[in-house]
Amino acid sequence: MPPAYVEALGSVAAVLTTFCWIPQAVKVIRTRETRAISLTTQVALSVGVVLWLLYGILHVSWPLIGANAVTLVLLIVILAMKLRHG
Amino acid sequence: MPPAYVEALGSVAAVLTTFCWIPQAVKVIRTRETRAISLTTQVALSVGVVLWLLYGILHVSWPLIGANAVTLVLLIVILAMKLRHG
């Protein structure tokens, strides 16, 4: 596969795994229903994304910084709703 | 920060964002409760992880392949339970 195609594939992957959190954030805000969501998963995922963000900052990698900053904002919304509504 | 520390940070990030899915998978298997989980998020995330896995295969990057293969298995469990229990 030509290298440009491979990098395009990576970009689509990054967009999906970043913006996929929008529907989940919208859903918990709208319904206030969070029972099925694992708190442990949300905390571990959020801490992991903070570390990926630091890793991106230390490597001065703008794709890593951008993707993880957006993901983190959405995960914080979901985590806050989980902590509030149980 | 010494490069070895930066890479260790990245490894901890990868472990967290991979294995964080275990508690969510266990929770949905135990409770059969999936209402609060967004189907759109789970599908987009799973497709994104499939693309990251392909990207890892095309780059012959074993950390990417390993992390995304494990994540995908756990996400498929959660997605299957979501499709079954709504």
End-to-end distance of chain A, in Å? 47 Å
Count structural domains of chain A.
1
Oligomer: homodimer
CATH architecture label of chain A: Up-down Bundle
Portion in strands of chain A:
under 5%
Tally of individual helices of chain A: 4
The proportion of residues forming helix of chain A, as a percent range, comes to over 70%
Query: In this structure, how is the largest beta sheet of chain A organized?
Result: none
Residue-averaged pLDDT of chain A: 97
Summarize the helix and strand pattern of chain A as letters.
HHHH
Largest interface: A-B, 39 and 39 residues
CATH top level of chain A is Mainly Alpha
Per the CATH scheme, the topology name of chain A is Monooxygenase
Radius of gyration of chain A: 15 Å
State the total count of DSSP E strands of chain A.
0
InterPro entries (chains A, B): PQ-loop_rpt, SemiSWEET
Pfam families (chains A, B): PQ-loop (PF04193)
Transmembrane segments (chains A, B): 6-24, 36-55, 61-81
Membrane topology (chains A, B): Multi-pass membrane protein
Task: Summarize this entry quickly.
Chain A has 86 residues and is mostly helical. Chain A has four helices and no strands.
List keywords for this structure.
homodimer; 86 residues; mainly alpha; Monooxygenase; 4 helices; elongated; transmembrane helix (chains A, B); SemiSWEET transporter (chains A, B); membrane (chains A, B); PQ-loop_rpt (chains A, B); SemiSWEET (chains A, B)
